[in-house]
Write a structure and sequence with these properties.
about 280 residues; Rossmann fold; two-stranded antiparallel sheet
Length: about 280
């Protein structure tokens, strides 16, 4: 797919991965439609990209339908959807704020389903491409990340099923798997007194953060190829092939880290949504 002239709808585009991908696609001649919260930031990104912004919560059917209708009315259709909007929360299951846990599931999984369902008729018309942003968390399920891992594993399963359902209609579906990326969300999690040290203490490449520019390049390349999978960094793709062994590795690594962290989290109110994105979706 040559992105020049294509209409690309990106959710969660006010900052981080969404904003980076929007800028790179626009530089390649794509017409970008940005959907998300943090309206002022979203409009600034759209202005830099020569695109348009629609402020909408991906968990809100009516807001999404209004935004997608606006995109189609303005651009004439949709060729590519990047279902990227997502949030994260800190906490162990036994002591985590239930509202934060469920909000992660609602945004990261149900938000993807609602985005795709709303856009799918237009992708069928254009015989387009959908990229669902999952995560390394769909492969390696680490402690303190249950909500995020569950949601991202659900995204992967959803996209795999969707691919088989719409291939005969000319629509291709890909899944993006990213490790820790230097975004506001991950940087904010690193500031947490319990989970920051846990994340940074992960062994080898697993604890490293990667630049958001690497994701931008990989996503644009993946869209051009209508790829089934996009990996950043590349070793995540190799890990997918041996994923049956990852729970044992995680269990062994967690044995020395979790007991003390779990006690602190149970004694203190430290769970909740993290980063600017988490503040944007937090409900009163």
């Amino acid at each position: 797919m040559d992105v020049s002239g294509k209409v690309v709808l990106i959710t969660g585009a006010a900052r981080g991965i969404g904003a980076e991908v929007a800028g790179r696609l626009a530089a390649g001649g794509a017409r970008v439609a940005l959907v998300g919260l943090e309206g002022d930031l979203l409009r600034q990104v759209a202005e830099r990209c020569g695109g348009r912004a629609w402020e909408a919560d991906v968990t809100d059917w009516k807001a999404l339908e209004t935004a997608v209708a606006g995109v189609v009315d303005h651009f004439g259709g949709i060729d590519v959807v990047v279902a990227n909007a997502g949030v994260a929360a800190t906490g162990f299951v036994r002591s985590m704020d239930p509202v934060a846990f469920e909000r992660v599931i609602e945004v990261n999984l149900l938000g993807v389903w609602r985005t795709v369902r709303t856009c799918l008729p237009h992708l069928i018309t254009s015989r387009g491409y959908c990229l669902v942003v999952s995560s390394l968390a769909a492969i390696a399920h680490i402690p303190g990340n249950a909500a995020y891992s569950a949601a991202k594993a659900g995204c992967e399963a959803f996209a795999d099923s969707l691919r088989a359902e719409v291939r005969h209609l000319g629509v291709d579906v890909g899944v993006a798997y990213f490790s820790w990326i230097a975004t506001d969300m991950v940087d904010s999690a690193d500031e947490h007194p319990v989970f920051g040290p846990m994340r940074r203490g992960m062994p080898g490449l697993a604890g490293r953060k990667y630049p958001v520019s690497a994701v931008g390049r990989a996503v644009v390349r993946g869209i051009g190829r209508r790829a089934r999978a996009v990996h950043v960094p590349g070793w995540v793709g190799a890990l997918r092939l041996v994923r049956a062994f990852t729970p044992r590795v995680v269990d062994r690594q967690a044995a020395g880290l979790v007991p003390a962290a779990d006690r602190v989290m149970a004694e203190r109110d430290l769970s909740g949504l993290v980063g600017p994105g988490g503040r944007a979706v937090r409900r009163p």
